[in-house]
Amino acid sequence: MTLSFPPGFLWGAASAAYQVEGAAQEDGRTPSIWDTFSHTPGKVLAGDTGDVAIDHYHRFREDVRLMAELNLGAYRFSVSWSRVQPTGRGPAVQRGLDFYRSLVDELLGAGIQPVLTLYHWDLPQELENAGGWPERETAERFAEYAGIVAGALGDRVEFWTTLNEPWCSAFLGYGSGVHAPGRTERLAPLRAAHHLNLAHGLGAQALRAALPARAQIAISLNPAVIRPLSDKPEDLDAQRRIDALANRVFTGPLLRGAYPSDLIKDTASITDWSFVRDGDLAVIKHPLDALGINYYTPSLVSAAPDDEDSPARHDGHGASAHSPWPGSERVAFHQTPGERTEMGWTIDPSGLHDLLMRYSREAPGVPLYITENGAAFDDKPDAEGAVHDPRRIDYLQAHLAAAHQAIADGADLRGYFLWSLMDNFEWAYGYSKRFGAVYVDYPTQARVPKSSARWYARVARTGELPAA
């Protein structure tokens, strides 16, 4: 049975600046925390860096032509903060802004809507040297940066996202240390989470002041689907604890203007939350025009046995001796059953449906977008140079069917962005994991659409999901 999506449903694909652009030292760009992290021995698999990535900075016109061939209605990209504002302070580098002006013009010329993310994890290194996201000034600097980009592109870009996955920035960057800047602390992730929330609120204010009234302002979260191992009280409490740290630490202030009382109690041995100042929560609870949801896999948790050495080892976020769950380090994570991707993540589209329905309830009246969804598989060209990836097609088929069911169940879902358009630098995994619908031969930078790209192009053109 063919499933039809609503008229006007937005079909897109997504990327992030550090993962695709390259040109790391060109036209005034200075290092971000990911440049520093990737150049630190032992931090990224095989010593890979984003210095060249897939050279999107020089090949963007070719890439936009490819997007048009794939019938994309939108392209979600992020701006490199240190390309625009190298120190994170002061005037912009016009050469950096010119790249994004040219990219946006090329997209519009091809009939593709630009969807701009201001921050996808690449903090200017100079701001990290001053303390990074655990410091309040970083949020203030973000607002200035948001105003600069809005002033340059606000006449042509109508869909703006402040932050992508602030949970990863805060808890993987400052807790487990598996993401840049690689710090392993307990208090810093909570301070960082608050200042990322504040950055969203201050940034949204700056965008409102600079953009036309028609502009949409959103944030993209990676809310976790947390399921208990059993219905025992201790396992249900483990679920509650992780839900507070993974989800409600952001949606509490964003949607309700308050941090959850249970989160504050769970972390009382770490902080009294005095870094939250009067007026902050009102700023954070800035009206949203849309909410982006990124989804890949669910989590399964329980109370940790006393003899469990590393309870968080199956949380799906990379190996570390340090937990990204401050105050709840004794929660155990378990491998969920079922087929897995190359990331080791279980394929479970029911989690996407659950999230869409949850945020339909928690954010009534706010349109939802799936701003990331996809899978890494071990894709290789065949003897003729074609790349067939039937497992990715099956993955997308199942997750789009779950999204369609959520719409039927009342979710106001307006669009879907495939992660990712092309194979690229996959953070601490380097170039070892391929999420793209388009294969990239890294030595030559040749782009080869996989069979999933052609499949997705048909779905985007027709708005219809063929029967599995």
UniProtKB/TrEMBL annotation:
It comes from the Bacteria. Pfam families: Glyco_hydro_1. The keyword Hydrolase applies. Its EC number is 3.2.1.21. The keyword Hydrolase applies. Signal peptide: none annotated. This is beta-glucosidase. It comes from Streptomyces hygroscopicus.
